[in-house]
Amino acid sequence: MLTVDTVGALRALVARARGENKKVALVPTMGNLHDGHIALIQCAKQRADFVVASIFVNPLQFGANEDLANYPRTPNADRERLVNAGCDALFAPGVEQIYPDGMVNQTIVSVPKVSEGLCGAARPGHFDGMATVVIKLLNIVQPDVAVFGEKDYQQLAVIRSMVRDLNVLTDIVAAPTIRATDGLALSSRNGYLSEQERTVAPLLYACLKQMAASIQDEKQVGERHVNECRQRIAAAGFQLEYFEVRNAQNLKPATSNDIHLVILVAARIGKTRLIDNLTVDIRQGE
Ligand code: PAF
Predict the structure, then answer these.
(1) Which fold has domain 188-278?
(2) What is the number of other CB atoms lying within 10 angstroms of the CB of residue 139?
(3) Does residue 286 register a pLDDT over 70?
(4) Which atom of ligand 1 is nearest to the CA of 61?
């Protein structure tokens, strides 16, 4: 695997791959790679001949009170995991490569509607910072395909919306969430959990499944079930940010006409903020 840390070197690698008629995929990450990221690389390998992973902890998407300084950085282990996964190139730029003139006067991409509410409400500026770095990475690599995890469902919706609005040619592919055997969605932030918090954390997925089952049984979103789940999460010691059922495409609150739904949750346990989601279709006529 070739590792480069400048935009110029990365562009040269991609140009060489293109010269060999290779289809190019990009897997953007912030490092501290786990099996969920490796699944993204595998998904990319199925769709392209030359897979570029990027590792960049993007300061622009962290709020003032967030964990930028302490965000886990494990470059050697990450490299080894990417080599073992058969990744072709690693782009690991420093902040000065991505924001050569600093971040204050950086052009910002702001995606309306889907970025509002849910995580957008709790993390002001987060989706602007995320969308800005993603469009920069897409412009640097100009991949045929870019792969993102469904675990960050609202992020994926923001990226899809941005790519559509800005006529970006890259095909955005969603890879399913990878879970621990007890259901907890894999995330770099799981490493912050204490032993006791780790035993409680799978409750979020249990509540998503409980809610999905009630929607499928009753063929509608029962407010009583939503409230039961919210209470169950709070009673287990989480500080609940949101537990919501939304239209799976536009993330607007679910209506009785919606068939494709997504249940989304964000909650803090101790110092750790966890998010998860589950899509559910209301099957008519059964
Ligand atoms: O999901 C992430 O790891 C980040 O938000 C991303 C997409 C790499 C942009 O920094």
Answers:
(1) Pantoate--beta-alanine Ligase; Chain: A,domain 2 (3.30.1300)
(2) 12
(3) no
(4) 10
